[in-house]
Amino acid sequence: MSIPSGKKYVIIGAGIHGLSTAMHLARKLESSGRGSGDDVIVIDKKAVGAGASGIACGVVRNNYFQPAMRELMAHSVGVWESDTEAYSYHPVGYMQISHEGMHEDVLSIYEQQKAIGYESSFIEGAAECQEYMEGIFHDWRAQGITSVLHEKKGGYANNMKSLRGLLGKAEAAGVDVRGGVEVTGFVTDGGAVTAVETDQGTIGCDHVVIAVGPWVQAPWAWLDLPTTTTIASPDGGDSIERPTWIYWALQEGTLGVDPGYLVDNDGNMPPVIHIDTDAPLYDDDGELVVEGPWGIYYKPDFSFGGVQGGYMPYIVDKPAAEVAVDPYGPESPDFVVGGDFYRTWTSALSHCQKRFEGKSHLIKPEPSGGIGSFSPDSFPIFDTFSQNAYFIADSNHGYKMIGVGALVAEELLGHEQALLEPFRYSRYAEGKLHPVSNSPYPWS
Ligand SMILES: Cc1cc2nc3c(=O)[nH]c(=O)nc-3n(C[C@H](O)[C@H](O)[C@H](O)COP(=O)(O)OP(=O)(O)OC[C@H]3O[C@@H](n4cnc5c(N)ncnc54)[C@H](O)[C@@H]3O)c2cc1C
Question: What pLDDT does 337 receive?
């Protein structure tokens, strides 16, 4: 089927944000009498879930040090909960288990969660944490833990199943979703985008939404947006210049045990576990693997077929323009995990729970992991450029942010959203940055 010559709204990218925006926009156009799903097209150069959303571990949590991120996540958790079946969402909860260096930060997260009514418990003290964790897993044995934040909401969702759920809802609302159509540039007039050029022809448009995940630097360049960004000092000091986009590589894998191997003491699916510790990490033969600090996350997962999770990401040490984003994910020759990850992650599982001792050989040796595109402060940019080009650039925070599409749809209809306000690009020039925590991750 040939592509249409024009659509009011062209959305590039059929990942979590493109599909969610399309679905909400179509519904809002219809309910407001301003149009219908027929005004919206989603195009993807490959297929639904061909980007980061299709390989995401799928963890949904609120645990953020930044108030604006927490509020946005609380909103998104509400969307996940609105249809757990279609989104393949498992509301098992989430635990941030930490060493003393993170105690104050996590306490502040807990206090602010209370303030916004997000249900969680906070346990302090080494003995108390050990007791609490043994109440969940009788074989818990991680060292050096002095606080546990247990979020009762959140959990995880199955990546491709949730995307198919979104796709079904978007198509039911009348949206045309096309794979195999690659955008190659924009036609502009008077500074605004008037058409999207693709390898199959040109689509005229009133609005374009760019939701291309790790490929963001290409459309950013087509609009001549800056490759470096000046960040003003909030207290009047010297400003700093950073590349607008850099890449981090995420290291994830799966231990090939039955997912039911990781049930809690009552035989139920446990919360997602995330631990950050400064205790030295040894393998099962007693050899030092990492002096510390280090961190991992894990969960039982039927779609990955085992206990799935990851280790700390690393920065891709190249300018963004030199990084090969394609082929993406497990097909990449550069950014998949290997032996070091297998040893570290399985040693860390065994450090946490005795049931994983002697199980490192069960790691699935298949390629996994992938890269994410990060902004100058590692937080999302949700903003309009060139008058009508809306970027949803989530700085790799975003599978869990399923609710952002609903807010973007409102903004496309002219209603500014307070939840998105802290994520405008102007925050760099204004020095209005999000607070930074002591977490080793660029996304906490
Ligand atoms: C290994 C890994 C694990 C992760 N785990 C989690 C997690 O547990 N929880 C969480 O919240 N987040 C996680 N993330 C981050 C999350 O996956 C991303 O932030 C999010 O999926 C980005 O969604 P998106 O819709 O913006 O982009 P994507 O899902 O990347 O989709 C972009 C789409 O755009 C298409 N595209 C690109 N360029 C063009 C073009 N020129 N023309 C047409 N189409 C184009 C691509 O084919 C792709 O399908 C993880 C990321 C990775 C890499």
Answer: 86
